[in-house]
Amino acid sequence: MSDMTSPKWPSSRGDVHVRIWLAGVVFDYAAAAAAVQNLIRDWRHHCWYTIELVCDGLGDLQLLPRLPCERLFLGP
Fold this sequence. Notes:
By secondary structure, the protein is of the alpha+beta class. The protein has 1 helix and 3 strands. It is about 15% helix and about 30% strand. A 3-stranded antiparallel beta sheet has the order 2-1-3. The protein is globular and about 30 Å long.
């Protein structure tokens, strides 16, 4: 994802499906859009894993676990 201000970026309200790839293992989470924006902003400084924002709308966010430590990414 190169530009978080593009029209395809979800609003900062509501939840989104975020996929994190770490050492070949995939983790799917539901998280507040604002938290994901901050997570990606932080990731740009330390790119040691891959983040994917899943926008297909096929999954039920209620079935996904919450992003661990999500509240840490909600602050400044």
